[in-house]
Amino acid sequence: MRIVVAEDLFLLRDGMVRLVEAYGHQVVAAVDNGPAALEVLLAHRPDVAIVDVRLPPAFSDEGLQAALTARRAVPGLPVLILSQHVEQLYARELLADGHGGIGYQLKDRVLDAGQFMDAVQRVADGGTALDPTVVAKLLGRPMRADPLAALTERERSVLALMAEGLSNAAIAGRLFLSEGSVSKYTTAIFAKLGLADDQDTNRRVRAVLAYLGAEQGGR
Amino acid sequence: MSGTGRTGGTGGASGGGLLRWGAAVGAGLWRSAVLVGLTCLFALVAVPVGWAGSSLVYSWSAGMTAAWPLRALAVFGETLLVVVWVAVAVWTVHPFTSRALAGAARRCAGRWLGLESAVAYREPRPVTRMATGFWWDGQEYHRSEREARRRARVHARFHDPQLHWDGVWMLAASVTVLPVAALPLLALVLGAVLIAGQPLFGAALSAAGLVAAPFAWRVLGPVGRPLLGPVTSTRLGWRVAELEEIRADLTQTQAAELERIERGLHDGAQARLVALGMSMGAAEHLVDSNPEAAKRLLAEARANSAGALAELRALVRGINPPVLVERGLVDAVRALALDAVVEVDVVSRVPARPERPVEAALYFSVAELLTNAVKHAHAERVGVELSYAARTLTATVSDDGTGGAAATPGSGLDGVRRRMAAFGGRLEIDSPVGGPTRITVAVPCELS
């Protein structure tokens, strides 16, 4: 895969480049600030970009803004956002366009190289890879939308793992179920949320969006 | 600030209206008379002294035959002399009367207009006995304690800035309040006298006096408001005391905060890093002899490093929340609302980012209020409203909980009050028992 890395700390950027290259991918650009990140995202149109939320020059949320702007220009451009902290607010903003190809992870996740590269791959394939911390926060929220209240406990846990971006097989592994019953649950979820048949990935993203309440306008 | 002596307004359409109007006129006349009594002293002193003085001094130059510039000079000198005499007379009366008369006017303003003003007069200094046997009153030495105490009392009484400020009130009142308040009374008396000779004019004059009565005394408001309050030095003194309290608070809060951070680092991340180092050292030692155990240790080390990161993240959130840094107050409050366990609606009318310290103070205050709403009031719905108007940033947190919130010392709300006080802001609590609760924090600030 062709990958862009935007991270201001040299050690982390360097480590990330080496990690990605160790897994046999190609880093087409590694930049250390917000404007440059936006530029290379639009110029290279990478298969996936790994972007830090907080970047120079202002050390606010330049990385996130660059990703959002690039995705407005190139819908569905796969971006994996890394941050020292995860916020539901940012997750909603990232998912609001409904295109998928979005990851949002704590920087700590880099420690587990295998899982991290797994997340990168999922995002590149147009899926989602939300940090379990953010998903846990979402689970802690009071149920407000009626269609979600109709879900059973099991369906909710399947949906939560779907939000993390796991495939049916992976969900089956986590919940000790057969893949067949997981696919039964997902079908039930799609039906209860009123999501019509179309491409599976897209429908999964939309299920997650329904879960976030992001379809209510996000911000 | 509306007084008790409301005017009847529409007049005598009904018997009740007429009665009310009559009461207002009666009260107005009484209040005018009181005000005249309280403000006429300087005039009573100045007018006779001025009149007697001028009739005396102008007689000196009456028979003068000289060129007109010389005569004009003489008249000017005489006038100056009269002015000095009047001033001396007023200055002599002032120290003995101003305090009592201004105090009475202050009480009237409080009762009639709700114009409360607290003032402080200087206290006599304590006297001390010196080794020489003399008594020191803070100013000079005296032979006896009694004499020293008397002098201290006199000094405190006559060298009091508040007393002189009261004198300024008396002076101003005798040229503003006095004539205006005397107007209805004069009209009434003059009308009554004239009614025998010129019935029409006399009746009109009396009627004018009666109509003016409910309004004339209100001149006390605009004149009293700036002049009856505490003198600037007293106000500044109070402000200094208040600021000293805030500073002491701030210093303590800061120290406590540093201690919390230090403890967080020491017991958390630092300890984790030590453990990390030890596991890795042990793994290094075991890697050849027992690779399995070394692997286990390395996994442990990784878990420890993840734990250290999590602890540092929590600590950073308490010092300066990352969303606040990245996005500013409004989005930080939105993020807070999303993380709350109940439904929180955020409405913002803040066009730009406020100054950073104010922003942080307001953020932590809102966080505290949200926690209170959920934890103590058991609210199910919470609303947060942020707005900026008249150079004041306001956050209102309202909930449908059990109410009864109060800023008792040591409570979270007390902490919010202090946090706000440090920035010259305020905390308003409207929380009847049984709810609903509405708490407002407001800070004056500029937007960037």
- C-alpha end-to-end distance of chain B: 37 Å
Tell how many strands the DSSP assignment of chain A holds. 6
Main pleated-sheet profile of chain A: 6 strands, parallel
Largest sheet of chain B: 5 strands, mixed
Query: With helices defined by DSSP (H or I, 4 residues minimum), what is the helix count of chain B?
Result: 14
CATH topology of the largest domain in chain A: Rossmann fold
Task: List strands and helices in order, with pairings.
The complex is a heterodimer of chains A (219) and B (448).
Chain A: E1 2-6, H1 10-22, E2 26-31, H2 34-44, E3 48-52, H3 62-73, E4 79-83, H4 88-95, E5 102-106, H5 113-124, E6 128-130, H6 132-139, H7 146-149, H8 153-164, H9 168-175, H10 179-192, H11 200-212
Parallel strand pairs in A: 1-2, 1-3, 3-4, 4-5, 5-6
Helix pairs in contact in A: 2-3, 6-8, 8-10, 8-11, 9-10
Chain B: H1 15-39, H2 41-60, H3 68-113, E1 128-129, E2 135-136, E3 141-142, H4 145-158, H5 161-175, H6 177-194, H7 199-216, H8 220-227, H9 232-286, H10 291-319, H11 322-327, H12 329-339, E4 343-349, H13 356-375, E5 381-389, E6 392-399, H14 412-421, E7 426-430, E8 437-444
Parallel strand pairs in B: 4-5
Antiparallel strand pairs in B: 1-2, 2-3, 5-6, 6-8, 7-8
Describe the structure in brief:
The complex is a heterodimer of chains A (219) and B (448). Chain A is an alpha/beta fold and 219 residues long.
What can you see in these coordinates?
- The complex is a heterodimer of chains A (219) and B (448).
- By secondary structure, chain A is an alpha/beta fold.
- Chain A has two domains: 130 residues, 3-Layer(aba) Sandwich (Rossmann fold), CATH 3.40.50.2300; 75 residues, Winged helix-like DNA-binding domain superfamily/Winged helix DNA-binding domain (Arc Repressor Mutant, subunit A), CATH 1.10.10.
- Chain A is 53% helix and 13% strand.
- In chain A, strands 2-1-3-4-5-6 form a six-stranded parallel sheet, with helices on both faces.
- In chain A, helix 2 runs parallel beside helix 3, helix 8 crosses helix 10 and helix 9 packs across helix 10.
- Chain A is globular.
- The C terminus of chain A is likely disordered.
- Chain B has three domains: 178 residues, no CATH class; 85 residues; 118 residues, Heat Shock Protein 90 (2-Layer Sandwich).
- Chain B has a five-stranded mixed sheet with strand order 4-5-6-8-7, with helices on one face.
- In chain B, helix 6 runs antiparallel to helix 7.
- Chains A and B meet through helix 4 of A and helix 10, helix 11 and helix 12 of B.
